[in-house]
Amino acid sequence: TDERIPAGAALTARQITEIDAGHIWHPYGAFPPSTPSLVVESASGTRLRLADGRELVDGMGSWWAAIHGYRHPVLDDAARAQLDRMSHVMFGGLTHEPAARLAQLLTDVTPDGLEQVFFADSGSVSVEVAMKMAIQYWRSKGRPGKHRLLTWRGGYHGDTMGPMSVCDPDGGMHSMWSDVLPRQIFAPTPPRDYDPDYVLNLELLLSAQADETAAVIVEPLVQGAGGMRFHDPRYLQALRDACDRHGVLLIFDEIATGFGRTGRMFAADHADVRPDIMCVGKALTGGYMTLAATLCTAELGRAISAGEAGGLMHGPTFMANPLACAVGAASLELLVSRDWETEVADLEDGLTAGLAPAWDLPNVVDVRVLGGIGVIELDAPVDMVSATDAAVAAGGWLRPFRTLIYAMPPYISTPDDLATVTGAMVAAAASQAQGGSPG
Ligand code: PMP
Q1: Would residue 132 show up in a list of annotated catalytic residues for this protein?
Q2: Distance 292 CA to ligand 1 centre (A)
Q3: For position 435, what pLDDT does the model report?
Q4: Which residues carry this modification: N6-(pyridoxal phosphate)lysine (predicted)?
Q5: Is ligand 1 within 6 A of the CB of residue 233?
Q6: What is the distance, to the nearest Å, from the Cα of residue 285 to the centroid of all Cα atoms in its chain?
Q7: Half-sphere exposure at residue 213, Cβ-oriented, CA atoms within 13 angstroms
Q8: How many other CB atoms sit within 10 Å of the CB of residue 392?
Q9: What is the tens place of the pLDDT at every residue in 2-52?
């Protein structure tokens, strides 16, 4: 719109749509957008309320983040109380209670031995920091040649340059960048079931590349945006053993899997494995604020600090934002005070039952559920517009991508909510069977 908006005046839904389509990038978006974004006016519990009056049951948890649902009174209060103290202050030379409280809680719930917490402002940055920690560690040890990362194919670790370099290099969403990214080392995608030959080959690769490899980085148990694939937790033990034998650090990216989503507090807990470095984000603040963290062992903290730089060379402006940390601490306290294990087990049951009818569709090649994650995999890429329309018509909010229709609803979802979400998933899948054009 060319009209100037008077300061403070409310925008109409039409104005929002026009300004949005004219000026605002959306994730992986284009100008003009292929389809306008829905205007969401408010959200509470599991519901998104649209400007046109429709109400949708949220299947996405705002991309894994909103585990307690929207407008939880405890989180709302934590944000308000912190607002009355300070919303932000620089973290160089200053500290505050929200950061201390959240750091203590994080070191308590993460695997034993992760002691040092770096507060980052997004998941991608926390992965950048993890990569830098690993490289700086080996520099401090006089091994600057160990600067590459080893990962398995099919992964996704974020959209900035470092994380993109460890995303799936072949056909993944960042493969167009492969010629300008740091060159990393790739192992095949782990099969879903345990295969000793896979482990053997992984170890051979690791031992051959150990002189150049700073760390192995993987998404434990679930490869998320790279394909929503699950694998046997024994691969994580095998990685830990191989890393120890060959002098390579182990990084777990728990940004999607952390805080109960897989049925354990962290995916690492399924294998009883402690990584040297761990990234968390998304659900860290219950989806309220942009905050992530990279944790590492005390040994790494000491070694990095003894190196030539005298410390870890990273320090964002909004590091440990007090509002975000206050809500993060409240979210974590809320999580551990509730019977989240039963809630996630109920999600698993509800998703499994609700998705069963998908098996009968001719275009469905797999249906899989783990904890609070449900996935329908199709035989061809979805047309995102018609698949989303079908889900919305069935009352659910979903964001299908490639061949995947998937959900990770808030833990507070009721059986009725889950029936709506799984119904929307099956409807979205069915819409593609009825001649939805691949997009
Ligand atoms: N790692 C994983 C496993 C993720 O799922 C994501 C987010 N999709 C990221 C990293 C990047 O996090 P962010 O989008 O907050 O930068």
Answers
A1: no
A2: 10
A3: 56
A4: 282
A5: no
A6: 12
A7: 27
A8: 18
A9: 567 888 899 999 999 999 999 999 999 999 898 889 999 999 999 999 999
Q: Which of 337, 372, 402 is the endpoint of a domain?
A: 337
Residue 3 pLDDT: 66
Please state, in angstroms and rounded to a whole number, the distance separating the CA atoms of residues 389 and 309: 53
Q: How much is the pLDDT for 91?
A: 98
How far is Cα 59 from Cα 420, in angstroms, rounded to an integer?
9
Query: Which of 375, 371, 376 has the alpha carbon at shortest distance from 346?
Result: 371
ipTM: 0.99
State the CATH number of the domain containing residue 100.
3.40.640.10
Ligand 1 pocket check for 190: Cβ under 6 Å: no
Q: Are residues 155 and 262 in the same domain?
A: yes
Q: Are residues 104 and 82 in the same domain?
A: yes
Q: Would you call 156 a catalytic residue per the annotation? A: yes
Give kind and range of the element (H or E) at residue 251: strand 249-253
Instruction: Output the six-digit token pair for 83.
Output: 């607002």
- Same domain as 373, residue 282: no
Q: Which of 28, 52, 112, 170 is catalytic?
A: 28
The whole-number pLDDT of residue 401 equals: 93
282 is catalytic: yes
Indicate whether 172 belongs to any domain: yes
At residue 133, the pLDDT reads 98
* pLDDT of 439: 41
- DSSP-derived letter for residue 360 is G
Q: Name the stretches of the chain with pLDDT < 50.
A: 1, 436-439
Give residue 4's pLDDT: 78
**Helix boundaries (H) for 32-182:** 61-64, 73-83, 97-109, 123-140, 161-165
d(CA 215, CA 212): 9
Query: Which of 310, 337, 364 represents a domain boundary (last residue)?
Result: 337
Active-site annotation holds for 146: no
- For residue 347, the enclosing domain spans 38-71+340-433
Task: Kindly name the residue from 70, 137, 156, 198 that is annotated as catalytic.
Answer: 156
